[in-house]
Write a structure and sequence with these properties.
With 360 residues, this protein is an alpha/beta fold. The protein has eleven helices and 17 strands. Bound molecules: NADP nicotinamide-adenine-dinucleotide phosphate and zinc ion. The site of zinc ion has 5 residues, from loops.
Length: 360
């Protein structure tokens, strides 16, 4: 990895730089070492020495082509934390040595109504950090690598009180739960259920608790109960127990479903109060059947939510710093990434793997 202090502070013209990382060369193939070129720095670009990258279940879905249209070779990773090593000469937000992050987005058209309201994630032309084509037609490559070059607009400032390894998962798991909790007004007096205590779910518990909501975890077993309560949950139930659905019928203002596999949404909708909302953030590969009666009886709604915009992601990072909210992480060396993925698939991670890029 490069030494930030040795890098020049501004660079308009620079040659493309060779990057080292791990890639999936085809669907379902294990990740292997991979060398590729990062673009030369443009005037508004920031070059970042990646120190840590979280492992999101979306990395696995995409590398295994579970959502379709995957681009290979694919360097996954959109929970990136590192240090600025160089900036283009029109960059105003960052300087060499700053602690920064990059999440799921690296570009958008900046002019559509969604971009104008700081909802870049819903821009029809937004560019994902990997498994996408940039406006230059080149495939984007993610954070399972030693460095990245990103327009400053899509770079986040990591507050000093959050260590870089713990900051990484906030860039996707954190914002993906923060945004719907805010949008649907989680706070004092509201009852929130988080379905699935994985990478996203455990951030949901911590964030909803910090916002002042009463939080219940709905997990497939009770094996994570003590952890969930320690994270700030008020209650914890196993969804494998049919009594759970009887006992909690009509209980929640807001349910956020983070599960990466198909579950019976109808059963969960019955747990909402009248006019409650269930928000889907988990993205399983197959459609889920839905009964109209699950919604119409209680004027309930079913919604979806995708990550968050850049302004809101910065707001989330600052909220986490203010409230001491950080993920529970397990550091893994790069060469064990395939084993880490297998453990994510088995729901055997407490609660987010983070790759230490110094091991690359
Ligand atoms: P994760 O760490 O693997 O957590 C998923 C959790 O779902 C597991 O810990 C487990 O929780 C539960 N689960 C898994 N398989 C299950 C099954 N067969 N039946 C019931 N429960 C099961 O994954 P993640 O990284 O948090 O991501 C979760 C999902 O969100 C993925 O589909 C991912 O692609 C998606 N995602 C969406 C967005 C967005 O913007 N909307 C952003 C990032 C990720 P328990 O053990 O507690 O039951
Ligand atoms: Zn993610």
């Amino acid at each position: 990895m490069s030494n930030p202090s040795a890098a020049s502070s501004t660079l308009t013209e620079s040659a493309p730089q060779t990057a080292h990382g791990y890639a999936a060369m085809s669907a379902k193939a294990p990740l292997v070492p991979f060398t590729f070129e990062r673009r030369a720095l443009r005037p508004k670009d920031v070059a970042i020495d990646i120190q840590f990258c979280g492992i999101c279940h979306s990395d696995i879905h995409q590398a295994r082509d579970e959502w379709g249209a995957s681009i290979f070779p694919m360097v996954p990773g959109h929970e990136i934390a590192g240090v600025v090593t160089a900036v283009g000469d029109e960059v105003t937000k960052y300087k060499v040595g700053d602690r920064v992050g990059v999440g799921c987005l690296v570009d958008s058209d900046r002019s559509c109504p969604q971009c104008q309201r700081d909802h870049e994630q819903y821009c029809a032309r937004s560019v994902a950090t990997y498994n996408a084509l940039g406006f230059d037609g080149q495939p984007t490559m993610g954070g399972y690598s030693d460095h990245i070059v990103v327009d400053e607009h899509f770079v986040l400032r990591i507050p000093d009180s959050i260590p870089l390894d713990r900051a990484a998962p906030l860039l996707c798991a954190g914002i993906t739960l923060y945004s719907p909790l805010r949008h649907w007004n989680a706070g004092p007096g509201t009852k929130v259920a988080i379905v699935g205590l994985g990478g996203l779910g455990h951030m949901g518990v911590k964030l909803a608790h910090a916002m002042g909501a009463k939080v219940t975890v709905l997990s497939h077993s009770l094996s994570k109960k003590s952890d969930g309560l320690a994270m700030g949950a008020d209650e914890f139930y196993a969804t494998s127990d049919p009594e759970t659905f009887k006992k909690l019928a009509g209980s929640f203002d807001l349910i956020i479903n983070t599960v990466s596999a198909n579950i019976d949404w109808n059963a969960y909708l019955s747990l909402l109060k009248v006019e409650g909302h269930m928000v889907v953030v988990g993205a399983p590969e197959k459609p889920v059947p839905l009964s109209a009666f699950s919604l119409i009886g209680g004027r309930r709604s079913l919604a979806g939510s995708m990550i968050g915009g850049i302004r809101e992601t910065q707001e989330m990072l600052d909220f986490c710093a203010e409230h001491g909210v950080v993920p529970e992480i397990e550091i893994t060396p790069m060469e064990k990434v395939n084993e880490a993925w297998e453990r994510v698939m088995k729901s055997d991670v407490r609660y987010r793997f983070v790759i230490d890029m110094a091991t690359l």
